[in-house]
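Feature request, filed as a ticket because there's no other form

It would be nice if the structure record came with a short human-readable summary line next to the tokens. Right now we just get the raw output. Example of a typical job, pasted below so the devs can see what we mean:
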Amino acid sequence: MNVKKVIDLSHTLYADCPSWMGQKRPVFSYDAIFPEHGYTAERVDMNVHTATHLDAPFHVSPYGTRLDEIPVEKFQGMAVLIDFEKQNVEPCTEYTPEHFMPYEDKITEGSIVIYNNGWANRRGYNLDYYKNWPYLSQEAAQWLADKKVKGVCTDSMSVGGACEPGKAVPPHEALLLNGVWICEELNLVGEILDYETFYFCAFPLKFVGFTGSPVRAVAMIVD
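Raw output as currently delivered:
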């Protein structure tokens, strides 16, 4: 595999950056500073489901697989990008299986499905980013799980919906409890949208017993 280009698909992390509703926002501080200690070291206090991050099955079930129990090779593979932004998707759109069926020939067993809503550019403290993103229906999530994909990723805060009650958890359950990991808040802007397929990596930190982790998500354009 010849890697021609690596494209960063991760959002920046910073103090008070956007995080899930009702959660404590990230706090960054110094444990050591150079004038006093001769070196500098930082401390991070934040929910692991902040910015570009990965969900493990334990996120929605006490019996689900923990983050560190997922084989590391699962977090990389060929990805197919579905660009709903080009279709002028409306806020609060609930995706059904029919939205994904036109791409059925590209969605194969073991692939990683990434769908773009055009939400990365809206990142910030606004209603669209915090509530009104398009999301998977339970049926769409189950359709993807039945395809035996490896992972499902999006550029919004969640694959589930926040526009109305009861829409957030079912798509998570349909994916995670069928062994499909989830990556949320990808930074899908710029040249990555010129590619329909690429090699994708989203490696989490090896937290023991965790439900998720921040990731440095990248696309590799390969020959």
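Something like this underneath would help us a lot:
The chain has a mean pLDDT of 97.
Residues 3-11+48-222 form a domain with the Glucose Oxidase; domain 1 fold (CATH 3.50.30.50).
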